[in-house]
């Protein structure tokens, strides 16, 4: 039944986590006989899948069919000799495979196929896009180059599973799972791994405790607040990774943040990781985006293209600041798709109406209920191409009244701004929060200007001429910073875009009329 329908978010998480528990990671020599390695490992149990990747040397990810194959392998593995350094005797699922006689043992080995863990640079992508036959094809091409691969997803769940092995030393019931871009279908190759530590399935425990005429409960240390408990737990696990975790480096404990976390670099998998303690609302946001991403292939293709476009033009940045975040930008795309006629994706309120009893969920007073079974959501009747949607996205936000209106994904419509932030996007669940509160006026104006410029390029380009001249066209033309190739054209079209800036300048200077502003500028 599960294979014929799209899996729910929870089913995918459970399946991937179980897969990761049956998986080991092996550092291999440069010259390797793949057949002999697999032959040796198969003596411990059947190998279900495997792949190789490059990360400061060649690594193999090996997934066994049975979990006990790992126990068998661990029993046969030696401890490194402590000649130069003393070793911490923590036995993880990270191994190093060496050849005792490299020359003869590597003989007959062919170069192994390496699975890519990063996407190609934009400058290498542009020539590829120029060979496509439509903007839609270009957008799907970009999606295929940038999206997480099956192998990369397995590696992300393995990184979480290896951290979980440490957490279980203290909390035997705990789990560590990814959330955010690693699981919401919008992650690109190379993005960080956000992971959360969860302690037990509270619902499962609640049902067990109801039986019988008496109650038994654990004696546990009590602390004045949940936040303090979170800080103490993360501090200890951060120290544990720092002191004993093979390949865990650059540990930073950021315990006073709104959401306390531990940042670290996981050398074996090559990921930058952020570990926090279960944040139920962040996980529901991941699930909501997962549903939207699964409903229609155009959703992900549009998000990936818009996010790549935004990064090229400096509208987003990997460093926190006053620019639009990828999450805000993704929500802007979702809002745009809700506003199509007919809509391409449903509003959150419509998803809530489809929810049944098991989907009902209130977290911290916020209603986070929505349908989790994708088969209950009717497919859209909208047949617009991505060519149309991309141009209309830029037009929609290039002319959006950001001064007056905010974006509400629960209702799927613009509503008056509750406060004066330049960009106001309602948090879908915590309805009193603006997810784009960090964005300032200059950054929003830059976004509007580049969106208008992009809409203009798509409306006025002559694909045939550009193909003859071997010039980038369609999406490819939008992935070149505008100042570089067409500075003079841009200058003319930017006229009239700065009106917001002039208006705010007028307000701030409290000048009586536009004439006095002209005099001031004239001087």
Automatic annotation (TrEMBL):
Query: What's a single GO MF annotation on this record?
Result: poly(A) RNA polymerase activity
- Cellular component aspect of the GO annotation: mitochondrion
- Where does the record place the Poly(A) RNA polymerase mitochondrial-like central palm domain? 135-293
Please state every residue range assigned to the domain named RL: 8-76
| Signal peptide start-end | none
Could you mention a single GO BP entry for this protein? RNA 3'-end processing
The record's InterPro entries line, in alphabetical order, gives: MTPAP-like_central, NT_sf, RL
Concerning SUPFAM superfamilies, the annotation shows: Nucleotidyltransferase (SSF81301), PAP/OAS1 substrate-binding domain (SSF81631)
Superkingdom of this protein's organism? Eukaryota
- PANTHER family in alphabetical order: POLY A POLYMERASE CID PAP -RELATED, POLY(A) RNA POLYMERASE, MITOCHONDRIAL
- Name by which UniProt lists this protein: Mitochondrial poly(A) polymerase
Natural source organism: Columba livia
What's the name of its gene?
MTPAP
